[in-house]
Structure formats: C-alpha cells, structure tokens
Amino acid sequence: IRALSSGSRIVSAGDDAAGFAIAESLRGQAASLRVAKQNADNAVGLIQVAEGGLNEQNNILVRLRELAIQAASDTVGDDERGFLDTEFQQLVQEFDRIAETTRYGGKQLLVGESTEYEFHLGTGSSPFDIVRYKLDADTRASSAGISGMGVSDQDEARDLLEGLDEGLMHVAKARAGFGAIQSRLQIAGNNLDIQRENIMGARGRIVDADIAYEVSEMVQGQIQQDFGVAVLQQANQNPQRAIRLLG
Fold first, then answer.
1. Nearest alpha-carbon partner for 121 in 191, 28, 201
2. pTM (2 decimals)?
3. Consecutive H or E run containing 130
C-alpha cells in the first residue's frame, strides 16, 4: 500500500539499501545535468547577444554601400551627395556605438578584448566538462576599416566601395565565429537533455513501483484477509462445522 500511495518501490534506504544508494547517485547526476544545460543555454544567450549586434552592423554596412553607389552616380548633384553623406556619417557613428555597447552583463563583446570564456557543460571537473571559447571579435568602425569614409565626393564614393566590401567580410568573419560556437553549444545542450532523460529513466526503473505487481499483492492480501474473516464468522456461527472444515 505504501508503494502504491507513494508511487515508489524504495521509500527509505531500508527498502533496498543498494538500490537506494544507486538511485540517489543518479538523482544527483540528473540534477547536475539540469544545471549544466542551463549553463549551455546561458552561453547560447551570450552568443546571441553578440550576433544581434553583428546583424545590425551588417545591415549598416549594406546601407552604407547603397549610399556610396547612389553618390557615385551623376543622377545626384553635389548638394544631394552632401545629404547622403550626412546619413553616411550618422550610420558610421551608430556602427561604432553598437560595437561599444553590445554587452552581456558587464562584459563588452565586440571590442576585441580577447576574453577567454569557460562554459561548464558537464557534471565533473575534467577538461572534457568545459567548453572554452576565446572571444576576440572587434567590429568597431576603425577595425572594420570604415572610419573616416564619406560620400560627399563622387570619386571618393566610388573608391570606398572596396573598403566597404572588406568591412562586410570583417563582420562576416566575426559572425562565422559566433555561429560556429553557437552551433556547438546547442548540440552540447541537446546532448545534456538526452543524458538527463536517460538518467532519470534509469533511476525510475530502480525506484518506481511496479503498479501491476503491487496491486496484485494488495488484492491477494485483501482476499486472504476476507477469507480469514469469513472463516471466523463461520466458526462463530457453527464451531463444530469449522472444526470439520479444518480437519
């Protein structure tokens, strides 16, 4: 009855000392795997913050190239190029601002600080329980090669197209690095989920009650009890008949 009410075959260590010890060890491992999965998710969050900033910087570079192409054509005059350059300069400043302000907590992610992160994604202390990642992306305007550019002059607008393409490749390289580690972290997180599910399944096979067996035992006990009560009732009604039955 206790097993049926609790759903567990092992309620205390006295029920199965060896099974209890193994089950508790597995419970601790499963809890550790759950926290390790949280670490993986948080690490992915860090990478996604950086990727979000890079995505906007990429959009800015695309827009800068559009402005340069527009300014390089005689379909606009010098006054219009001045207007285009005003937007161009604002976008370059925003590009730099994004790099300086993209943070995870108090850590800047896009200024090339060369910070090495250690993500603990295991349940032990071995090197295989740690994923190391060196974050050295620097996407400030000076590093991307777009600081000092302008489109107020037609020839200058044409000349800076190559530089903008190099800036796009610079940002793409940083995005590729973040994408690679994000992919790894997501796979590691999925693996942790699978491990935890299997560990919990193994623990369940040790501690979970066999409901069919426990119900059968309970029914058998109730039948024996009812039979005993019936015999006593018959004995009280007819002692001699009970004696003959027992004989």
1. 191
2. 0.77
3. strand 130-135
